[in-house]
Specification:
Layout (H helix, E strand, L loop, with lengths): L1 E2 L3 H25 L5 H15 L1 H6 L8 H23 L4 H8 L2 H12 L2 E3 L1 H24 L9 H24 L5 H23 L13 H4 L2 H26 L4 H4 L5 H14 L5 H19 L3 E3 L7
Antiparallel strand pairs: 1-3, 2-3
Helix pairs in contact: 1-11, 1-13, 2-9, 2-11, 4-8, 4-9, 5-7, 5-8, 6-8, 7-13, 7-14, 9-11
């Protein structure tokens, strides 16, 4: 039985990654005021790839037998997941999207137990449930604030976000297998670069204006405001390159089932940004949900223990 060590560092890395992912919704909302979904995601990952160029030049080693799995995880985790998720977010409310994203920790806990041979104790499952209930309260509190909005949620939008969470589950578990014998630097650098290359092919095929208004025209860069460019840069550097590296490294130190609990920091951070930067109000249920998420995070990082029955198969 393999026991995970250096848990504190692993949980810290995953917590920072999830918190920065929460900022991605805020920056994405800014970018979507001037760009379509495809252009926003493409520029986000171009900035991320630019940040990872030093790692690509250093050429961190990936085992030859793992390149097929790396390309598969790149496709799942970048073009497929992000295009579907942000298309869903464009068709539903922030509150409903947050509720759907809050299903990821539960999916990770169940998926890790079924496919990754991880054993999480009762304390871990309690923290997982508590955290998910907290995310639900945050979403329901946000829903009450948007009740008077003419742009309401749609079933199609909600289902697209849920489907993107299933893809995120597969990406996380397959990434775990890659990390069994490859460094997080290699998995992150080549994974993001490969996914960005896929976006360069897929986005022009799906969107009529894949690079934004008047692409490659003489006034292209001024057509997009500085605020949007800054949001895209932050999305790529902070919410993509940094998060993917931290998350991949964290998964080498803690089980995916426990790391998944920290994913509920994402809707929490998004709600706080709405309050302090967008002037939104945070109701009693949202405040209660935030406390529940923080308590669950403390429990999972200090009291719960998860082990793995056997190494993950590589073939």
């Amino acid at each position: 039985m393999t026991i995970y060590r250096n848990r504190t560092l692993g949980f810290a890395a995953c917590a920072v990654a999830c918190s920065l992912w929460g900022c991605g919704f805020f920056f994405g909302k800014i970018a979507l005021t001037e760009l379509n979904v495809g252009a926003m995601i493409l520029y986000r990952f171009l900035f991320a790839t630019l940040a990872l160029v030093p790692l690509l030049l250093h050429r961190p080693r990936v085992h030859r037998a793992d390149w097929g799995l790396l390309l598969l995880t790149s496709f799942l985790g970048i073009p497929l997941q992000f295009l579907i998720q942000f298309t869903g977010l464009a068709r539903t409310t922030v509150s409903h999207a947050s509720l759907m994203v809050g299903t990821l920790p539960v999916l990770l806990g169940v998926g890790a137990a079924l496919f990754a041979h991880e054993r999480m104790d009762r304390t871990g499952w309690f923290a997982l449930t508590l955290s998910t209930l907290g995310a639900t309260l945050i979403a329901l509190g946000a829903g009450a604030r948007h009740a008077s909005s003419p742009a309401g949620p749609t079933i199609a939008g909600d289902l697209l976000v849920v489907f993107s969470m299933l893809i995120a589950l597969a990406w996380t578990l397959l990434t775990k297998r890659l990390l069994a014998r490859n460094s997080p630097l290699a998995v992150t650098a080549y994974g993001v670069a490969a996914g960005t290359a896929m976006l360069l092919v897929l986005v022009p095929l799906i969107y009529r204006q894949p690079f934004g208004p008047q692409a490659f025209g003489p006034h292209f860069f001024t057509q997009i405001s500085l605020k949007v460019w800054l949001a895209l840069g932050a999305s790529g550097l902070l919410c993509t390159a940094s998060t993917t590296l931290l998350w991949s490294w964290g998964l080498t130190l803690v089980p995916a089932s426990q790391a998944g609990v920290l994913c509920n920091l994402e809707p929490l951070v998004g709600s706080l940004l709405g309050v302090f930067l967008l002037g939104e109000s945070l109701g009693p249920s949202a405040r209660t949900g935030g406390v529940m998420i923080l308590v669950a995070s403390i429990i999972i990082t200090t009291l719960s223990r998860t082990s793995r029955r056997e190494p993950l198969p590589l073939t």
